[in-house]
Write a sequence for this structure.
């Protein structure tokens, strides 16, 4: 058996609803290996944060 390339394990907890969302997104991405999916999303994925405070100030 060959040695592992990835030797550092990361572990986190999710709610059942979050697990369902992850499963749906894996299916949309045509991925069946959760480790691969989570690694790719962590390394290559992104989060867009939008500041709507100015819009809320004008409309609210």
């Amino acid at each position: 058996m060959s040695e592992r390339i990835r030797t550092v394990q990361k572990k986190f907890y999710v709610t059942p609803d979050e697990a369902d969302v992850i499963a749906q997104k894996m299916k949309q991405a045509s991925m069946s290996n959760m480790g691969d999916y989570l690694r790719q999303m962590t390394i290559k994925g992104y989060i867009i944060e939008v500041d709507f405070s100015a819009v809320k100030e004008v409309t609210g």
